[in-house]
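Lab notes, practical 5.
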Amino acid sequence: MESTITILIYIHVCFGGLGLITGVGSIIVKKGSALHKKMGKLFSIGMLTSSLISLPISWMPNHKNLFLFLIGIFTIYLVLAGYRALLFKTKVKANLKDQFISGSMLLASLIMIALGLYGAFNGLWSSSILYLVCGSFGLLLTIQDFKFYNTPKPSKNAWLIIHLGKMNGALIASITAFLVAGLGLVHIITWILPSVLGTFYIIYWKIKISH
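Output from the prediction step:
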């Protein structure tokens, strides 16, 4: 069993590294260019594969971690929703796949918030903050999703704003995983700081695209 877990972890790390490198690269190169699109595809493959593998790992003996399981779901949601946002450039209405992706994240967000509140009432502040921050962020994103799905005529670049926001959110998750798991910087600041800085970056692009 342990050898199987080790192999899965190595595969998880390799694809996570692919996602991190191509994710940073996609930010550096010109948006919309052929190179940006290629890096974006590799980023999606890397992050999806790494996150999917992390789900069973987080339930295996000596590696059980509910928070990492939920973060894996969060990352999968960000990549899938970010990729499918591109389809709304020509697609008019959301379909069942879009609803399912956002609905699954909505449920995961409510679970994280519930766990955070439970921990807060029991004095487990360090883990509670992480659950509450991630859960609230996920809840906000999914509410925005359903609002977008039910808007008859969204703004011209709404799909692009969603795409950039979700993909950059997935990159934030990749950077956080590298700092915490790769470099061993296990601290609440390490968990939250990339999200704070990344949010400012997302807001910058949202304002730029909106004008």
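Observations recorded by the TA: The chain is about 80% helix and 0% strand. Residues 2-210 form one domain.
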